[in-house]
Amino acid sequence: MFLKRRISREAVIPSSSLADIAFLLLIFFLVTTTIDVDTGISLVMPPWIEDVEQVKVKSENIANILVDENGDCLLDDEVVSIPMLKDIIIKKIKANDKLIISLKTVRDTPYRIYIDVLDELKQAYNELREEYSFSKFGKPLDQVTEAEMKEIRKAIPQRISLAEPEKVD
Amino acid sequence: MKFQKKRANPQQEIPTASMPDIIFMLLIFFMVTTVLREYDVLVKYELPEAISVEKIENKRLLSYIWIGNDERIQIDDSILPVDEVMNVAYYKRLGNPNVIMSLHIDKGSRMGVVHDVQQQLRRADALRINYSALRKL
């Protein structure tokens, strides 16, 4: 018989480095996938009502903020600068806890300035809540429990009213 | 020496043959979970900055609206006129009653268009909104 003598060779691909290669890929994915966190100012708008009935609010319970297209800010007929707004609002809310803040813009007000004003208002409320949380629970606002947060929200509700922008002729 | 103990000589190797498989599983897990559904943003915008920004914990509730610097409005993958926003927002709310509309608005756009969009959202009863803003340092 003409059986050829075969040379049997060990034909194994070395797989010991496979894990390392997979690790590299894994690290690549871990590093490159950025999970971007959305940050922003949250707000809940009032529901839409077809025929709006005028709710009368006592004039002393309302703080009118008007912002025009140049970024000038009018608080209860007085010109204030936007960075001052926080301290003034804090003082006002402390004096009157039923205060509603009415934020009104004109149609040409830049969004950036609107956000600046809203930011000031939010900061004022946050500061008041922080204070309340310290005096009531003895800890900062970011460490309170859910139930305590509810109580804080109830004690210091955010009363921001967004009024319809005015048309300026 | 005569008193040498006879030691057992067990194999002291952890089998590493399945390690690549385990790593691949991890890899596939990361590849699958980190795929974020993203939209092609067709408008140009630059977000405003604010100090009192909050993180949104639940991304699943979010639905995005973009308003670019040319005041075009985009929802999902298409650019819409203002009066269509109500319908789209309404269907979004049907699918998810707790939807938070995340408004990515260019910082230079005027309040008029922002307000129009907000009114449309109010009509659609999508009342939870979030003005997307960057953290001011």
* Strands in their spatial order, largest beta sheet of chain A: 4-3-2-5-6
* Main beta sheet of chain A: 5 strands, mixed
Largest binding interface between chains:
A-B, 44 and 50 residues
CATH topology of the domain at 59-162 in chain A: Nucleotidyltransferase, domain 5
Shape of chain A: elongated
Count of helical regions of chain B: 3
What is the CA-CA span between the terminal residues of chain A? 110 Å
Task: Explain this structure.
The complex is a heterodimer of chains A (169) and B (137). Chain A has 169 residues and is of the alpha/beta class. Chain A has a domain at 59-162: Nucleotidyltransferase, domain 5 (2-Layer Sandwich). Chain A has 4 helices and 6 strands. Chain A has a 5-stranded mixed beta sheet, with helices on one face. In chain A, helix 2 packs across helix 3 and helix 3 crosses helix 4 (146-155). Chain A is elongated and about 115 Å long. Chain B is α/β, with parallel strands linked by helices. Chain B has a domain at 49-135: Nucleotidyltransferase, domain 5 (2-Layer Sandwich). In chain B, 28% of the residues lie in helices and 21% in strands. Chain B has 3 helices and 8 strands. Chain B has helices at residues 19-33, 85-95, 111-123; strands at residues 49-50, 54-55, 62-67, 73-75, 78-80, 100-105, 128-132, 134-135. In chain B, strands 5-4-3-6-7 form a 5-stranded mixed beta sheet, covered by helices on one side. In chain B, strand 4 and strand 5 (78-80) form a beta hairpin. In chain B, helix 2 crosses helix 3 (111-123). The interface between A and B is large, with 44 and 50 residues. Strand 1 (39-44) of chain A pairs antiparallel with strand 2 of chain B, so a sheet runs across the interface.
Quick structural overview:
Chain A is an alpha/beta fold. In chain A, 37% of the residues lie in helices and 16% in strands. Chain A contains four helices and six strands; from the N terminus they run αββββαβααβ.
